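I am still learning, so can you show me any protein sequence you like together with the matching structure tokens, please?
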Amino acid sequence: MSAETPAASGQFTHRRQQFRAWRGARPFWAGLFVALGGFPIMYFPYANLRIGHLTLAMATTAGAGSLIIGVLLVVLGISLWVQEHIRVFAGVAAILLGLVSVPVSNFGGFIIGFLLALVGGAMAVSWAPGVPPEQEPQADLPGRGGFPQGAEPDTTATGSVKDTTARGDGGPSQASEAQAENDLSGTSPTNGANGRHSAG
């Protein structure tokens, strides 16, 4: 017998689908790249590299600036997950902080943090929330002319125009006048406007 019960398997699948839905509703990968870009930027200025008995300190004079830039990038990455509506601001700020990290923090965390911040910021700026899929229109049911059986097309509007033109009582001109009254664009042929506005 397996140690994993079907209930635990179903719960794992359910949690995974919940996480997938949560991840799809926000710029998840952008936030991850921005947050990961902050770690090398704030780590390398304070790290010591040991080669045998030789200790190489990579500390720069701008160690506090590197720490601030790294912490801000991590905070921006987390805020992209929590509040996705600030994605443009957070993306632009991440790009600018990544660019500032090049001269301040050991070439932007040896280019690693710089590239992660740039890619994550660009992904955050370009991310757009998904549109829920629309209902598919139902296919035409079998019948005459694409209409369901027993349903007749509405011919009252076309029949009335034909009847008024046959009688000669000015039906089409009345219809165009009614259409001109309802036209709020200001570009109807009755008032001589063609959609261009004069500056005089």
